[in-house]
Amino acid sequence: MNTYKNILVTGGAGFIGGNFVRYMLDAHPETTLVNYDALTYAGNLESLADLESEPRHVFVKGNVADKRQLEDVFTEHAFDAVVHFAAETHVDRSLTDAELFIETNTCGTQRLLDAARAHGVKRYVQISTDEVYGSLGPEGEFAENSPIQPNNPYAASKAAADFLVRAAHKTHGLEVAITRCSNNFGPWQFPEKLIPLMIANAQENKPLPVYGDGLHVRDWLYVQDHCSAIDAVLHKGRPGEVYNIGGHKDVPNIEVVRKLLAILNKPESLIAFVKDRPGHDRRYAMDSTKIRTELGWTPAHSFEDSLRQTVQWYLDNREWQERARSGAYQDYYRTLYGNRPAASA
Ligand code: NAD
Ligand code: TYD
């Protein structure tokens, strides 16, 4: 198997990208990773502090939607592969700020594809999401050939990006692969997403806002398992192909929240049912047979154990959590985009 030696990772100061950088440094001792991130509210260098003395990790501050900055980083480093995580990722924010999602997630992807092609990159992996498929009824799972039917601006901006990645392959022969993963959880997730938000609120005995009836179902995957799946697709995935990634752990939101409260030894009276999110997808479930059979990937972590470990990580890293929630990283955000809304957490 050919191992890529010089990889551009976009969005590596965020949740999954940061975990992926660490995963790759361990898994591939010959590989150098250039971590290109704009450091929006969701990304911060504090999450990467332990990598400061690691010569195989190079941080470059830059925006994926900025052609000149992209040109500079591609010219300085001769990348053989690109793994594209950088995105605006919070569905709730996309309801009020769709334009930013299109600029970063859609236009940013096209500009990155153009740069990758111009600089002769051998492999480009697009980190997409199960949300591009829309919502399921009570039965069934999404397969790679399921219709693309996004229901919110975040999902639509990611779906549009997927089509541009496909077009770069079909039109220009760029060696792309697309991964579509279900909901991740684990360390360094910004506390606006369900699991870290609920942990943070419960610690402070604040209400836990559960949207609607709480019976919306997500398929949860521990972030390390997502990282190993991306590694498999990067090195072994067939060009032009899409790979679904899921944990087969389909759980209603209210059950996740109850489990968290039980682990934290907090009362269920903290649960507050609130107005539902508009366009809220009812159920996601992934058929990941293709990556399992073709690339031999399987998740290595159980939901229950990794949920406990995740809770413990947030308890051990309260300061990180509090700084993230207080908007301490907003300065970077403002310099890039002006006065956008602060984290709602
Ligand atoms: P995140 O919000 O935690 O991190 C996003 C990172 O991208 C941050 O470090 C941010 O600073 C950076 N970024 C944002 N805009 C940028 C720009 N214009 N230029 C450069 N950097 C920019 O996100 P995450 O949860 O780690 O998600 C990473 C990727 O995985 C996204 O593409 C997302 O769509 C996808 N994904 C996420 C999940 C999930 O459950 N979190 C599931 C499936 C797919
Ligand atoms: P989230 O973590 O925002 O991920 P996504 O919307 O991308 O799936 O939300 C996961 C689920 O939890 C989703 O069904 C919305 C729900 N949710 C709540 O009920 N309350 C909350 O405060 C949040 C942030 C999410």
Describe the 3D structure:
- Helices cover 41% and strands 17% of the residues.
- The protein has 345 residues and is of the alpha/beta class.
- It has a domain at 6-184 and 222-246 and 286-300 and 327-337: NAD(P)-binding Rossmann-like Domain (Rossmann fold, 3-Layer(aba) Sandwich), CATH 3.40.50.
- The strands form three sheets. The protein has a seven-stranded parallel β-sheet with strand order 3-2-1-4-5-6-10, with helices on both faces. Strands 7-9-11 form a three-stranded mixed β-sheet. A two-stranded parallel ribbon has the order 8-12.
- Helix 2 (67-76) runs parallel beside helix 4 (98-118), helix 4 packs parallel to helix 5 and helix 6 runs parallel beside helix 8 (253-264).
- The longest helix has 21 residues, at 98-118.
- The site of thymidine-5'-diphosphate has 11 residues, from helix 6 and strand 8.
Write the layout of secondary structure elements.
Elements: E1 6-10, H1 15-27, E2 32-37, E3 57-61, H2 67-76, E4 81-84, H3 91-94, H4 98-118, E5 123-129, H5 153-172, E6 176-181, E7 183-185, H6 194-203, E8 208-211, E9 217-222, H7 223-236, E10 241-245, E11 250-252, H8 253-264, E12 271-274, H9 289-295, H10 303-316, H11 318-325, H12 330-337
Parallel strand pairs: 1-2, 1-4, 2-3, 4-5, 5-6, 6-10, 7-9, 8-12
Antiparallel strand pairs: 9-11
Helix pairs in contact: 1-7, 2-4, 4-5, 6-8
The structure holds nicotinamide-adenine-dinucleotide and thymidine-5'-diphosphate (TYD).
Residues 91, 183, 193-194, 197, 209-211, 216, 218, 253 line the site of thymidine-5'-diphosphate.
